[in-house]
Amino acid sequence: MTAKNLQDKTTLHNGVQMPWFGLGVFKVEEGPETISSVKAAIKNGYLSIDTAAVYQNEEGVGEGIRQGVAQSGLKREDLFITSKVWNADLGYEETLAAYEASLQKLGLDYLDLYLIHWPVAGKYKAAWKALEELYKQGRVKAIGVSNFQIHHLEDLMAEAEIKPMVNQVELHPKLSQMELRTFCKQHDIQIEAWSPLMQGELLSHPVLIKIAESHGKSVAQVILRWDLQNGIITIPKSIKEHRMIENSTIFDFTLTQQEMEAINGLNENKRIGPDPDNFDF
To answer: Is the pTM of the predicted complex or chain greater than 0.70?
Structure first.
């Protein structure tokens, strides 16, 4: 099912509902910039905010949530907040401590989703045990991973009690991750795209420009629509309110099968972020 509006959600394999669309805050500066971005997102109907310990802006996200909730009349439980444990903290006790540190910075009692940020060899299984424990205690609503490839998932699931609910990966038309998406669908793991706009690199692509013009939309809107029609959760980053509004105005048009296939055809397996198998931790 394709999302019909900004508040629409998908149901993860444990029954938790997660918005299809959210705000990412990677490289958003801690302090006023983060606070105003999160506040503006909530004001304009966003329910999902994605941060991470390594972004060093969890305190700003927390303050933006408090201010956004106060001005919107929403409750904390109306929002879906994600954070991630960083590579240096991928032991059992270390991950438990990292979770507490993230909660304290955010000023929250729980997270909706907690992810292992990168698949550091020899470390992610101990971290996963910690996530399973947090989940069993009811301290986090859903647990998952980020940047895991098929072999990482197979390795993790061979010993895990609970399989990941989400795998957040770099995904955009030049890195469409078809094999990984197929694997995750088979195992009921929801794919979520980070850097869906390839940090702006795709905005001048002629194929995308032509499709955008035919719908009276921007290239960014076309790419984000492609995500949703592929059943991919997407979290574009923006610090400008007008851009947040534009990014989320993607529920009033539909890409044709031919257009979807044209965008699928842009894949080059090209990354802008690190390769999960060769990331210098």
So the answer is: yes
